[in-house]
Known about the structure:
The structure is a single chain. A 5-stranded parallel β-sheet has the order 2-1-3-4-5. It is about 35% helix and about 15% strand. The longest helix is centred in the middle third of the chain and has 14 residues, at about 70-85. It has 6 helices and 5 strands. The two termini are about 20 Å apart. Helix 4 packs parallel to helix 5. It is an alpha/beta fold. The chain has a single domain (about 5-120), classed as NAD(P)-binding Rossmann-like Domain (Rossmann fold, 3-Layer(aba) Sandwich).
Amino acid sequence: MATSMTTTDFLSHKKLALVRLSAQTPVLGDMTKELGPKGYEVSVVYLKAGESDPTISSVKDRVEGAIIAVPKSECAAAVSEALEAGIPRLWLQSGCDSKEAIALCEKAGVPVVHGACVLMYAQPVQSIHRFHRAIWKLCGLLQD
């Protein structure tokens, strides 16, 4: 069974890996630009790394957790790699989390947050994420 972990617990750790699919995969927005000014040290790594691209295992001793932001079809593979590297806690970004990935965390006993966007919780919440957070709070969907 996965250890219960709140969003606050996860975000109390400031050295994080951000797992992307590949360096060539286009992304909407730059999470590192938003998390950096909030006091987070974010190492971007790639599930499908090129020869010189950083991987999860290359940062395993420098991070306290990982944010998985890959397509849902690749989430379980990213979680498996993070678990194999010994990453102690995971955040499966909203929209990429899969039942299989969550089950892997549960089986390994690794704390996991899923079904939520990290930018709606990392304080101070700004821009469109603040608006989105207010709607979720109004609807009773905001996690601890």
